[in-house]
């Protein structure tokens, strides 16, 4: 649950929904013409400098008496976001309250900024980044998170053992053997110094009935890549760094991942790490990883899962991921 609207309508549409007067289609086209021109001219909507600046401001805000973040828009608009971590609001049920979590980044793509539906709801905006707070629902007195917001398993040993067993299952699988074969046999494999894995999720399940272990298998894949790429390059695996970023990581996740020598980064720092010697991994991310990566880097390889809506791949800047990337693996998942 977000404190501000996060619905990311990724494409322009003309559907008529209730909106304040003055937000008709012609005005929308006029107001967003500049954004379209910038995109057509190849102006990046995300840059490493902009992300580094936001990262610095978010870290500064943690220790500031008046925590504020200044965001600059593509056409010069400026927005100041007041950080309100820990502030509470009355919950809908008596005895409950919402609590604002640490600030999160909303990444707003070209598709979003030129969406008529988004314009009808919020009006013109040239901000490709915004900051918002997600909220959690808890008991007003005990401060215990309500079901749906808390984890079903808290024991670090259970999660650790489950992760170990997922690694073993993965390493015994046909897919593992295929991946190993691809990495070992391809000629001209680019030099790799980093694996950057985004949005692999928390390994702690919220419900035992729906514990699908997806996150554990995805982390197992990241570890495998580090090992087999390191071996191929004739180096110890220590020479290929593995970075992960997911705001959902819990203290349990962090402590387990550290034991595997995986470096956990705060949003947006993992994006900043991506360069030409990086393998990027992401599966079903809640953030537009493709669009951000398309603007900031040309990684050596990307591994992702199939997207239901791939229209932007064929007419947007992300086209390079088909045309340019020497290696890419697309994992087809149900
Ligand atoms: C739909 S879940 C997918 C999780 C996992 N990859 C899977 O396949 O089950 C989306 C994930 O994106 C993560 N996410 C959201 N914002 C992110 C960000 N800025 N950077 C990295 N991950 C993010 C969420 O915390 C969540 O774990």
From TrEMBL:
Pfam families recorded: SRR1 (PF07985)
Acidic residues: compositionally biased ranges: 1-14
InterPro entries: SRR1-like
All residue ranges annotated as the SRR1-like domain in the record: 179-319
Region (Disordered): 1-20
Protein name as catalogued: SRR1-like domain-containing protein
Phylogenetic classification of the source organism: Eukaryota, Fungi, Dikarya, Ascomycota, Pezizomycotina
